[in-house]
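Quick note —
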Amino acid sequence: MTKKVSVYSTPACPYCVRVKQFLKENAVIFEDIDVSMNQEAAQEMIKKSGQMGVPVIDINGEIIVGFDKEKIKMALEL
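Predicted structure written out below.
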């Protein structure tokens, strides 16, 4: 079963780049949501995570804040 993965990020955030690189390296298909350009998505991210900081990763409704490689691996069952 494919998990729905969304990454809330900004272009200037180094951890966002690392999260996306990690997902690509593991052949994980994800939606990249640029919250610097999309106010609605930023509000959605804050509502889901209670955080203003990026990256916020949504894996099938499980919210992971920041580039927590172990949590991401567990959520994706890698």
